[in-house]
Specification:
The structure is a homodimer of 302-residue chains. Chain A has 302 residues and is an alpha/beta fold. Chain A contains 12 helices and 8 strands. Chain A is globular and about 50 Å long. Chains A, B: It holds the Pfam family HMGL-like.
Chain lengths: 302, 302
């Protein structure tokens, strides 16, 4: 019996300040966001998605994107990224001197339409311009495809559409692609099947996985991805986030839980567990409610 | 790149009425326990551990073991088991006509001592008699080893001690062994390493895995076990249970979450998801607090 070896090192993309906060109803003060991101910068994380330059009326929780990016203390060796939906968002992002730009599109027509009121094709046109302009301004770009493993409106999502969008985004010039299980329906078999196709076309270091834990399968999906050679995972400290289509249900995979599993498997992350937990406790205090991660819940009771 | 195939069928051992309830402070009325077990019997589960014949002063939550076993409606095709610590417990179990007896021992000396006030060697002597008497009375026996992947007092647990106890229990005459991650510290690499050793000596159908989700790793550990060919898993409906050493932290792997993942991977369980969820909702109502499973939390918000 032979097994795939696990990778020696994994890179965690912390998305809590963006994907975590955007789904929370409570507005976190700008100074608290900045303090939190500065704490995250000291944990050893090499990548933090700090906010989103969408229209503030869409996501009031992140309406202070410009102030946040301008005031955080950038640590050496950390990439600070922000989500950008269009040229207007990109101009704000460039003005605030973000390191990296993230663009997003859904693999499901209905989800894309409900999310940003454009068809997938219209969105591709917009993103092509955003990516081109980012590169012109010496910014690297990360691409997100959401609802990769299932859509809250359409159910099944075609692998071929995911592959088509993958090609489309890499042709535009993105450096890294993040495949999102936006509503947390993925299972490890699905992960294997998709990655088997994808890794025929692109090397593993270009692919990140973005799981939500809505049905408790996120860590198993991480394991399935590790076995396929994937070394980049998005997660949100404390499991902050929730599912946009089921308030109260579990949300993003928790960075602290992911870090627990990886480090106990001997996989390097360069992250300090105590600093990570301390940053989670800080945000739990500001959110004024118990965070969802197992690591935080365990610590609160011991 | 070749992968281990997943098994076609998995057998879930429902331990909620025993392992779930024993760690909850609230006493569930006998008639409600019976109603719940009867509901579980209708879900398609083939195995239910219904109670524990330990000294009622140890675990007041299960002090009505005799009444529960005598009054449940036994469904055809379902095995009803109960935990038995000693001959006194066995006599009660036999008197109430349980189908199968479960015996337990810890792989950590300190945990065993704190749990049942005996050394491991003393416990082995007791269990040998319990297993012998059970077999004499035509009852099959299931063995549990707890703290297999770590001990709350000693930390590391030696694989050699787990292997020694495995041999000891099978020599006594147990039919199936359940390996317990009592405090939820296991990671998939540990699972692989242990099972690689164990499956050199015993066939996979003799081994069940019993994971707790205290650090969120239970489902990943299930996946690692599936890849090793394991087809038997203990779980507790709704994630009922909690960690005995961290009140409020996540407890047993939730049957409904496990079932979600398995069925979406195309693995047969013969369990009806709706009936399972309905039985979880019944117990959530009786417990008068939100259950911990992701499936229940999701349903409560949709």
């Amino acid at each position: 019996m032979t097994f795939k070896q696990f990778p020696e090192q994994v890179f965690i993309r912390e998305v809590g300040p963006r994907d975590g906060l955007q789904n929370e109803s409570k507005f976190i003060n700008t100074e608290d966001k900045i303090e939190w991101i500065n704490q995250l910068s000291s944990t050893g994380l090499s990548y933090i998605e700090v906010t989103s330059f969408v229209n503030p009326t869409w996501i009031p929780a992140l309406s202070d994107a410009d102030s946040v990016v301008k005031q955080i203390t950038k640590a050496p060796g950390v990439t600070y990224a922000a989500l950008v939906p269009n040229m207007r968002g990109l101009n704000r992002a460039l003005e605030s001197q973000i390191d990296e730009v993230s663009v997003f599109i859904s693999a499901s027509e209905t989800h894309n339409k409900k999310n940003i009121n454009k068809t997938i094709r219209e969105t591709e046109t917009v993103l092509a311009e955003v990516v081109r302009e980012s590169i012109t301004n010496n910014k690297s770009v990360r691409g997100y495809i959401s609802t990769v493993f299932g859509c809250p409106f359409e159910g099944n999502v075609e692998i071929n559409e995911v592959l088509r969008l993958t090609d489309s985004l890499f042709e535009m010039g993105i450096e890294e692609l993040s495949l999102g299980d936006t509503i947390g329906v993925a299972n490890p078999l699905q992960v294997r099947i998709l990655l088997e196709e994808l890794l025929k076309r692109y090397p593993q270091e270009k692919i990140a996985m973005h799981f939500h834990n809505t049905r408790g399968t996120a860590m198993a999906n991480v394991l399935a991805s590790l076995e396929m050679g994937i070394t980049k995972f998005d997660s949100s400290l404390g499991g902050l986030g929730g599912c946009p289509y089921a308030p109260g249900a579990s949300g993003n995979l928790a960075t602290d839980d992911l870090h627990y599993m990886l480090s106990n498997m001997g996989i390097q992350t360069n992250i300090n567990a105590e600093k990570l937990l301390s940053a989670a406790m800080f945000m739990q205090d500001k959110m004024d409610k118990p965070l969802d991660s197992h690591t935080v819940k365990y610590r609160m009771n011991n």
